[in-house]
Write a structure and sequence with these properties.
This protein has 350 residues and is an alpha/beta fold. The N and C termini lie far apart (69 Å). The chain is globular. It folds into three domains: 7-72, Multidrug-efflux Transporter Regulator, Chain: A, Domain 2 (Orthogonal Bundle); 82-136; 143-348, Vaccinia Virus protein VP39 (Rossmann fold, 3-Layer(aba) Sandwich), CATH 3.40.50. Helix content is 48%, strand content 16%. α10 links the parallel β4 (206-211) and β5 (228-231). α5 (78-109) runs antiparallel to α6. It has helices spanning 7-13, 18-26, 45-59, 64-72, 78-109, 119-136, 143-146, 150-155, 167-177, 214-223, 258-271, 288-300, 304-312, 318-327; strands at 33-34, 41-42, 185-189, 206-211, 228-231, 244-250, 272-285, 316-317, 330-336, 341-348. Bound molecules: S-adenosylmethionine. The site of S-adenosylmethionine (SAM) has 18 residues, from loops. This is MerR family transcriptional regulator.
């Protein structure tokens, strides 16, 4: 009776080397049967499946100890893990791209004489700033903890301050404004439980939802299995360049400080196809003056709760978003829906 495949045969079948297989055996990732007499290893079909999983995960950059954990004591499934790994690789890829672009600029500035141009250091400083900003975002609001009750909470009317006033109106407005055809792709950033993204499904549009919160993504997937969910960040979208027709976002951008918002707009533009559209419905003021006016009216009404809520987050300055988008080749429309809720629609002209 055949005991199983021998190491050479396995190596050939999986397009690897006997040495690599022995390495994973030493690390305790695989334990083929051993013939006690001649010390030959015999691999079963199950060993082969496990080994090909190990090789595949290594190929996409998963560490050996993490693979062992995933296979032996899984706390999350392999697809969930891959979702995280993809977002990590995108972050690294974007960081590398920033570095390469800086090198390009440095090379352009450098002449054959050995004195470095002054702005060489400025370029390096700009790069280090960019790296810092991309890494500095923290979830202060515990969105994982909010996921289960999020949909109930948005329906609640706040007693003195209703942050979700106009929620349904703005989501509907985004859906009506974005022009998409069957088979197009729409990216919803900060998708949460999927309320905005799901509005595009009946149009036969492919919806990808990105969120930094794994729990929100799980809830979204349970409600709308057709939505493809990807773990990721506004500042390093897990999406290839020029691959979507539209980017939408509701009630998410105000979790980023203003300097991060502009990087987020840059990321949205990176993933858009030519002629693509961006539509944002979020907590925002028309401009700085409008913000002062709204805050001062809450002060007069002695509504400290409203002031605290506003100051706890980063409500956008609509004029800054419009200015950035117009400067970067978009035709822009804007509207203020109520004191704290605004809407910006932009289409790439080209
Ligand atoms: C208030 S919820 C809004 C959810 C949904 N868009 C809606 O309109 O109901 C904000 C969502 O944005 C996500 N979010 C906040 N900051 C983010 C960031 N920097 N990158 C990715 N997602 C983010 C949160 O995890 C959360 O799911």
């Amino acid at each position: 009776m055949r005991l199983g495949m021998q190491i050479k045969e396995v190596a050939e079948r999986l397009n690897t080397t006997a040495r690599t297989i022995r390495f994973y055996e030493e690390k305790g990732l695989i334990t083929p049967k051993k013939d006690t007499v001649n010390d030959y290893r015999y691999f079963s079909e199950k060993d082969l499946v496990r080994l090909s999983t190990i090789l595949a995960l290594r190929e996409v950059g998963v560490r050996v100890d993490e693979i062992k954990e995933l296979l032996d004591h899984p706390t999350i499934s392999i697809p969930e893990y891959l979702n995280i790994q993809r977002s990590v690789l995108y972050e690294k890829w974007i960081e590398m791209r920033d570095m390469i672009e800086t090198i390009d600029d440095m090379v352009k500035e450098t002449t054959s004489d050995s004195v470095l141009p002054e702005n060489f250091y400025d370029l390096a400083h700009h790069l280090s700033n960019l790296k810092r900003i991309r890494k500095s975002w923290k979830d202060r609001w515990n969105f994982d903890g909010q996921a289960t009750h999020y949909d109930e909470n948005i329906k609640r009317q706040g007693h003195r301050f209703n942050v979700h006033e106009g929620y349904d109106t703005v989501l509907e407005k985004i859906k009506n404004k974005i022009n998409l055809n069957l088979g197009d792709t729409c990216l919803d950033i900060g998708i949460g439980t999927g309320n905005l993204g799901a509005k595009f499904l009946p149009l036969g549009v492919k919806v990808i939802g990105v969120d930094q919160s794994e729990k929100m993504l799980i809830t979204c997937k349970e409600k709308h299995p057709e939505i493809e969910t990807r773990k990721g960040h506004f500042l390093a979208l897990p999406i290839l360049d020029h691959s979507v027709e539209a980017v939408v976002s509701s009630y998410a951008l105000h979790h980023l400080p203003d300097d991060q918002k502009l990087i987020a707009l840059e990321e949205m533009t990176r993933v858009l196809k030519s002629g693509g559209q961006i539509c944002i419905g979020d907590l925002m003021f028309k401009n700085q003056l409008h913000r002062e006016q709204v805050l001062s009216s809450f002060r007069e009404a002695e509504n400290q709760l409203a002031i605290d809520c506003i100051e706890d987050e980063f409500y956008a300055d609509q004029s800054l978003l419009v200015e950035w988008l117009s400067y970067h080749g978009f035709q822009v429309e804007k509207q203020q829906i109520n004191d704290i809720l605004g809407f910006v629609y932009a289409r790439l002209i080209n």
